[in-house]
Amino acid sequence: MNNLVNLYLRENDKVGQVINDGIFVESLSNLYRMDLVKCNITHLDMNVFINLTKLEILELSKNPLFSLPSAIKVLPRLFALWMFQTNVTTII
Fold first, then answer.
1. CB-CB contact of 40 with 63 (8 Å)
2. Count of domains for the chain
3. Rounded distance, CA 33 to CA 80, Å?
4. pTM of this structure
5. CA 22, 54, 32, 88 torsion: positive or negative?
6. Are 67 and 91 a contacting pair, CB within 8 Å?
7. pLDDT for 48-84, tens place per residue?
8. Helix (H, G, I), strand (E, B), or coil: what is residue 69?
9. Alpha-carbon distances, residue 61 vs 43, 46, 47, 75, 86 (angstroms)
10. Which domain holds residue 51?
């Protein structure tokens, strides 16, 4: 999966159960866009996006999130972060 650049998991409620279990491993390091809309994600670990250094677009809308990990701040290429219809008020 090293060549994968777009990952669409929209409306997959199982993602919320496994997202912090190392799903975004080094083999996904070429991702440019990730769609996690309505995946029932309730929290994100601090290092969940650590291997996604090429990620430019991240869609987290319609998830019951209250905060984002500080790891989101260090995604060097991120320019679009969509979080409508969430409860996010802080980046920790």
1. yes
2. 1
3. 9
4. 0.87
5. positive
6. yes
7. 888 889 999 999 999 999 888 777 887 899 999 999 9
8. coil
9. 13, 19, 20, 18, 6
10. 1-92
